[in-house]
Each structure stands twice: as structure tokens, then as C-alpha cells.
Amino acid sequence: MRSLSFPWVFAGTLIGSTVPLALSLPQAQPLRDRSNSANVTCAGVPSTFPTWQQLPTQTTLPDPFLPLKYTTTDNAGSAGAATFAQSVMTGQGSHRIQTSEEWYACRQPEILTFLQEYQYGYYPDHGQEKVEATRSGTSVSISVTAGGKTGKFKATISLPSGASASKPAPVVINIGGMQNQPYLGAGIAIAQFDYTTVAADSNSKTGAFWDIYKGRDIGVLTAWAWGFHRTLDALNLTVPEIDASRVGVTGCSRLGKGALAAGLFDTRITVTMPMSSGVQGLGPYRYHAMSGQDETLENSKSGAGWWSDSKLGTFVNHAENLPYDAHTIAAAIAPRALIIDQGTGDQFTNSKATAVVVYPAAKVVYDWLGAGDKIGMSVRSGGHCDMSGFTSVLPFVQQIFFGTKSTKDYTNLGTYGPPMTTTYPWASAVPKVS
Ligand SMILES: *[C@@H]1O[C@H](CO)[C@@H](O)[C@H](O)[C@H]1NC(C)=O
Ligand SMILES: *[C@@H]1O[C@H](CO)[C@@H](O)[C@H](O)[C@H]1NC(C)=O
């Protein structure tokens, strides 16, 4: 169960070729052990990904249960565009996913595929990479070779007292720094790498990732995600005091967007911890101005276009035609754990909408999959990237790593009050759990 690859994409059988209508996606996807599940036939992603013009304008969060193929406007028939959009938004679309088997075999891989197409760029095939690492004290040197090219970077580690090869500690890998002491005190190791050595936060295409993959249309958030994963590979190779099967990933703001991508693209990540992450993180594209300030698809794309692939740019001024929103990204991580932190004083990253729109909409899917306790929302006082966010989410992380029941209620949205259910109307029509 190594990191994900997308064989049906890279095999060249899907993109740019004719695909039968009832295409069945290969079952090789190692998202979950499927050996005991019934056979499932998937709708399959369209052979050509729809453009914004071919997708309905959805003013509310898209229905996570409706396959992309049945979301496109050519399904409208005689109903007309507005009626079709209304039915799609309210969970009345036809051919929705009906069972958790279909979710894991069809819909979750489909979401991962179209997120790479529309936003992240295609994650490199880890099967083609050779990872080597050496350790010297608290420093781990990482070298990745693929296609005759090599990229190198370093990570540092801090171990909690008592960690040993026979009693290995879980680890949180971070970029940009975090509050180490409470974690170390709780028996959790910390690893960190300098994200700029993996990929600069600019258009310069410098760093270990680009030393190997320069020329590809991949966003820097994906490059940072790759940095998390290769750090985990290296820890697993050289630090026996760390338990590589209990792993958290975190970062704040743009680095929170990167941590979210890290959790999304590798099933080895046990708990994903995006802090103050905003748009292209867990701030929604829709409902973007609910906290007074306004990070949007438009200004994130013009301010830091390198975070995503170029395709996302084609949706600028058409964000409501995106067939997904931040809740879709969160839901695709299920059933693995996700804890979201936002400060009520943080207006720019739209803390309110993350809490009352995105989190509860994603939780509908987690609940439906029987994993409702694996997603949590930490609404705390304070602002953008306050270190207090790390202590705020710690009891959740301890529950995931050690099974120690958290006394803190991560469904409580504090002063924001109840979820805004009108923003995800399909939730009143979730498929019957089978
Ligand atoms: C799935 O289908 C194959 C081929 O038809 C069959 O051999 C297999 O037993 C089926 N598995 C299950 C779990 O139904
Ligand atoms: C760690 O390495 C071992 C041996 O290669 C492998 O079986 C295991 O899956 C790896 N664990 C992680 C979390 O990568």
C-alpha cells in the first residue's frame, strides 16, 4: 500500500481515446482493501474532461454523489440548463453513487482524477521513483531519482522522550513550523522540511521536485505534497524510532493548502491537519466572502498562479462551474482522519464558511461512510496561523494516534452557530446507506 498512482490515467487508455459509456475503472486502486466487496461497475470519467462551458452553473456546493459524467450539461435534455442545474444541486441528478462500495471503487478515484486534471496537476508516478535516505543525528538527507534525474532535500526530526525502535512514536510532518512542545510532550515525534528546497513558492520552478519534474504542468501544492511523502519514505527507511504507520501532515495558510494535498494523495497519511488553509485549501470557491475579506479563485490564481496547474485558470470568473468545491476534496480523504483548524479572527481565509459550509458538507459524506468521528472542526479564537491552533487540534490527533477519547467536541462550531445547510441542499437527499 504505497502512495497512489493512477494507472488508468497514465496507461493512456482513458484520456484522448474513445471510452465505452459504461467504462469500468480498474480495481487496482489501493485506497482500501476491496477484496471482500461486491463487484461494482463504475460510470468512468469522461474521455475528455468537460470545460467550464460544459458544466452547469452551481451556486451551491456540488453534490458529491453525482459522477462527473452525469454532471455535464449534455445530460440536461429537454429540461433546459436552469432546471438541470437545479436538479443537480439538490441531489436529484440521475445515476448518483448509491453505496459505499461504489464510493470507494468509483467515485473516490474519480474525484482524485479530476482534482488532478482541474487543479493539482498529475501527481508523478511514485512507482518510477527510487528513494534513498541517510540519517545523521536529527537530520535526514533525502534523494529521489526518476527518469535519470535526481532531486535532493533534507528533513529534521525531533523525537519525544522514550521513543525507540521497539516503542516507535507516531509523527507529524510539517512545513513552515508548528508548536512542537505539546506534541513531543504527548509522545508524538515532529519532522519538518524546508518546503522551499522542494519547490519554491514562486514561478521559478526550483527545488528538488522541479529538478526531476520541470516542464510538467503541476502545481506547487502538489510538489509540496510530494515532499511530505518522500520525507515519510525517508523516515521509514532511516528512523526506526518513528512509527511510519501513524502519520500526520500539517502546515498553515498556503502551507495548509499543501498539507491538504499531502493528505489527499497518499493513503499512508493517517491524519490530515490543514490550518487556516483558505481557497485551494478548505476555504470554498463558492461562499467566498462570508468572513468579511475575500480570498477567491480569481485572486489566488492571479497572486500565486503556480499553486495549481494551468487548467484551474480556465475557471477564473467561472468558479461556480467547477464540478467540485473544498468539501469534495475533504470528502475524498475519507475514511482517513481530517481535522480542520480556523481562527475566528481570520477573515481572509474565510474561517466562517470553512466551519459552517465546507466542514458540515464533507461530514455528510464521512457520516454516510460510517466515518463521522474521523472528521473534526476546530474553531478557536485568534487569527491567521496562530500557534494555538496546534494545541486546539491536539486532542483530536491524540485520539487518532492513541485511541484516547477526546473530551473536546470537534463538531462544535462555537460562535458561528449551526451548519448552513442551505449551502449543500443535496444533503437532504443522501443515498440510502446499504
Ligand atoms: C466478481 O466478478 C468475477 C467475474 O465475474 C467473479 O469471478 C467474482 O467471483 C466476483 N466477485 C464477487 C465478490 O462477487
Ligand atoms: C516502510 O517500509 C517497508 C519496507 O519497505 C514497507 O513494507 C512499508 O509499507 C513502509 N511503510 C510506509 C508507511 O511507507
Automatic annotation (TrEMBL):
Gene3D superfamilies the UniProt entry points to: alpha/beta hydrolase (3.40.50.1820)
Example of a GO biological process term: lignin catabolic process
MF annotations from Gene Ontology: carboxylic ester hydrolase activity
Catalysis: reaction(s): a 4-O-methyl-alpha-D-glucuronosyl ester derivative + H2O = 4-O-methyl-alpha-D-glucuronate derivative + an alcohol + H(+)
Domain spans labelled 4-O-methyl-glucuronoyl methylesterase-like: 142-370
E.C. numbers: 3.1.1.117
Protein name: (4-O-methyl)-D-glucuronate--lignin esterase
